[in-house]
Specification:
Blueprint (H helix, E strand, L loop, with lengths): L5 H14 L3 H14 L6 H14 L3 H14 L4 H16 L1
Helix pairs in contact: 1-2, 1-3, 2-3, 3-4, 3-5, 4-5
Length: about 90
């Protein structure tokens, strides 16, 4: 748990759960990255993935909130760029 690779391990765990459509477990794994490593390199990606999981689970309001959180907390990250694209796509659907 204290390894320098712990954040990466949780991120991949979330990916595995997501691929298996075990969305609550995926969100929990991604949320662990954000909570335990809030300033780590993986935090923006974990937040983005939380939004993607909510989107897959047909929870658009929660997906929107997660994408918005990425943009607000990590505006210069690649994850924020992708989140902005997803938010724009969402707006265009309306």
């Amino acid at each position: 748990p204290q390894s320098e690779y712990a954040a990466n391990a949780h991120l991949w765990l979330g990916e595995c759960y997501s691929a298996l459509h075990r969305y609550p477990q995926a969100i929990e794994a991604f949320r662990t990255v954000v909570e335990r490593f809030p300033k780590g390199q993986k935090a923006p990606d974990a937040l983005l993935r939380i939004g993607l999981v909510h989107d897959s689970a047909k929870e658009p309001a929660k997906a929107h909130a997660a994408f918005q959180e990425v943009v607000e907390k990590f505006p210069a990250s690649d994850a924020a760029t992708r989140a902005r694209e997803l938010l724009l796509r969402e707006e265009l659907k309306k």
